[in-house]
């Protein structure tokens, strides 16, 4: 029985995961793209005042159980998805249901940080890690994350919340070596790296039939 292929695009903040994943989706017929940030907890949980910023981000940011039970586990077990799935709406800090249909033999791409944590890793058929140094990532987020505030406020947020949690992930999981493929996703090599990933996915799919 052919089962769905579940591809993870892992990487730290500002590494280019979303851009790469969108291009990859466009090149893969019928693949559906899910963003891990569509499955975050509301602010009251992910900004829990009883723990540090980095602890809240690392352990209280995402609804792993919901993602697993509603999407990853059924597909991994050879079942189709045909129903309403809750997606986070940042405008009202709540969830809205959307109809999702994925055939049992379909393909999905999940992009987000920390995808190789023990909660998720075994559900992926392959994980691509986008490895970009901190200086380049910081330059990107300073020019992108204006919703946080000024550049000083963005830097403060990353230094108190995101970077410490990312360092913990790197130490606990060594995602560069755990991943099936490691890419740089720089613009000059982006097309070539997308082609490389597509070939890798196709070869892996052929070998598991």
What does this structure look like?
This is Uridine kinase. It holds the Pfam family PRK. InterPro entries: P-loop_NTPase, PRK/URK. Residues 6-165 form the Phosphoribulokinase/uridine kinase domain. GO terms for molecular function: ATP binding; kinase activity. The chain is globular, with a radius of gyration of 17 Å. It has one domain: 3-Layer(aba) Sandwich (Rossmann fold). A hairpin with a 4-residue loop joins strand 3 and strand 4 (94-102). The protein starts with a strand and ends with a helix. The protein is built from 8 helices and 7 strands; from the N terminus they run βαβαααββββαααβα. The strands form 2 sheets. A 5-stranded parallel β-sheet has the order 2-5-1-6-7, sandwiched between helices. The chain has a two-stranded antiparallel ribbon with strand order 3-4. By secondary structure, the chain is α/β, with parallel strands linked by helices. The model has no long low-confidence stretch (mean pLDDT 94). Helix 1 packs across helix 8 (190-207) and helix 3 crosses helix 6.
Secondary structure layout:
Blueprint: E1 5-11, H1 17-27, E2 32-35, H2 43-46, H3 53-59, H4 64-76, E3 81-89, E4 94-102, E5 107-112, E6 126-130, H5 134-142, H6 151-173, H7 175-178, E7 181-183, H8 190-207
Parallel strand pairs: 1-5, 1-6, 2-5, 6-7
Antiparallel strand pairs: 3-4
Helix pairs in contact: 1-8, 3-6
């Amino acid at each position: 029985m052919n089962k769905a292929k579940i591809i993870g695009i892992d990487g730290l903040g500002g590494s280019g995961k979303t851009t790469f994943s969108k291009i990859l989706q466009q090149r893969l017929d019928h693949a559906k793209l899910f963003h891990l940030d569509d499955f975050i907890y509301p602010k009251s949980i992910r900004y829990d005042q009883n723990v540090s910023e980095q602890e809240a981000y690392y352990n209280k940011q995402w609804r792993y159980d919901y993602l697993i039970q509603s999407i990853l586990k059924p597909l991994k077990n050879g079942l189709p998805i045909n129903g309403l799935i809750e997606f986070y709406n940042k405008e009202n800090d709540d969830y809205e249901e959307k109809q999702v249909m994925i055939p049992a033999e379909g393909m999905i791409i999940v992009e987000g940080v920390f995808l190789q944590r023990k909660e998720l890793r075994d559900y992926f058929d392959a994980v691509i890690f986008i490895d970009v140094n901190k200086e380049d990532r910081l330059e990107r987020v300073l020019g992108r994350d204006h919703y946080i505030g000024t550049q000083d406020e963005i830097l403060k947020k990353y230094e108190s919340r995101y970077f410490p949690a990312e360092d913990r992930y790197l130490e606990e999981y060594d995602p560069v070596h755990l991943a099936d493929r490691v890419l740089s996703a720089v613009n000059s090599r982006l097309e070539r790296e997308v082609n490389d990933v597509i070939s890798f996915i196709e070869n892996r799919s052929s070998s598991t039939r």
